[in-house]
Amino acid sequence: MSPLPLDDLPVARPAPVRSPSAARLTRLTRLTRLTRLTLTLLPLLAIGAWAAVDWRAVSEGAARLAAADPRWLLAGVFFTCLGWVAAACVRQGALPERLPPGPLLASQFAAGAANHILPASIGAHAVTLRFLQRRGIPLARATASLALYSLVKPLAKTVVLVVFLVAFPDALRLGDLAPDTWTLLMAAGAAVLGLATAALLLTVVRPLRRPALGFVRTALTEARTLHTRPSRVLALWGGSAAAPVLQGSVIASVGFSLGLPLSWAQVVLALLLASTAVGAVPAPGGIGPVDAAMVFTMAALGAPVSLATATVIGYRVLTVWIPLLPGALVLSALVHRKVL
Q1: pLDDT, tens digit, for every residue of 77-126?
Q2: Contact at 8 Å (CB) between 295 and 314?
Q3: Are 271 and 296 in contact (CB under 8 A)?
Q4: If phi over 0 gives left and psi between -120 and 50 gives alpha, with beta otherwise, what is residue 136?
Q5: How crowded is residue 288: how many other Cβ atoms within 10 Å of its Cβ?
Q6: Are 132 and 119 in contact (CB under 8 A)?
Q7: 91, 121, 195, 295: least CB-packed within 10 angstroms?
Q8: What is 77-120 written as a DSSP string?
Q9: DSSP label of 284
Q10: Beta partners for residue 119, in sequence order
Q11: How many Cβ atoms sit within 10 Å of the Cβ of residue 109?
Q12: E-strand spans in 114-196?
């Protein structure tokens, strides 16, 4: 018998039913991809916005550097690269675990780009915190490492300042740089007020007391462990002491390329004094307050104001604007590859 015509018709199959958990997982995957794409493009968008706002300073600094001595500018680029190496050494010195040198250096290069976008080193700390967590460091210990890094850097810079004042007593002519009594009283009052506020919060707000004490206990344990290892002590304190010297060497190299009539020791001292005086102001990468203080300090040491201003602008172009786009690209690549 021949089959009926109806036997050749396709049989309708029921559509597969997706469970609510599978649909939720699909939405979560799409949201994760969108978040990663946003984080990848965010540094580039922030750089574009910042360049539009500060384009005049960038163009003026680039014009100044175009007429400068290229040999001194190459020296400035060399000291800038050494600055990233010093930052990586300090990060390694603040942790007992050994971090891979290549990704660590890349993360600090990317952190430099983030640091110039967000104020008070928030960007650099966020990048480093994410990098440490991706390396398996618990959040409490990674945060304690950042706290130790933030504490050692100003202490080491103060030691370097004292050493320079002793080693080069004739390089600094105090003049208008010496703070008056009222300024010193205001600084002391601000420090006392900050400590009193922290103590009051811990006393009154009890939910803060336990995590704060736990964080302090973890930080002290980490610091005690690190200071029993000479390699970590050398990386932590040596890198922190070298960082301001390298930064001052970059400024001196740019100044020498433009004909700045100051010595290397005077330029480094000007940076140390300016960053100590206004370094606590939460500006992105210290840009703004530190720049103004640098110009004022170098002018007080005998440099023409126009030349001091050109030196600071050229220094910012060399250390901020030129590495900013490559740093943002490295940051995006690290996010895309899940290193951050």
Answers
A1: 999 999 999 999 999 998 888 999 999 999 999 888 777 666 556 778 88
A2: no
A3: no
A4: left
A5: 13
A6: no
A7: 195
A8: HHHHHHHHHHHHHHHHHT-SSPPPHHHHHHHHHHHHHHHTTSBT
A9: B
A10: 284
A11: 21
A12: none
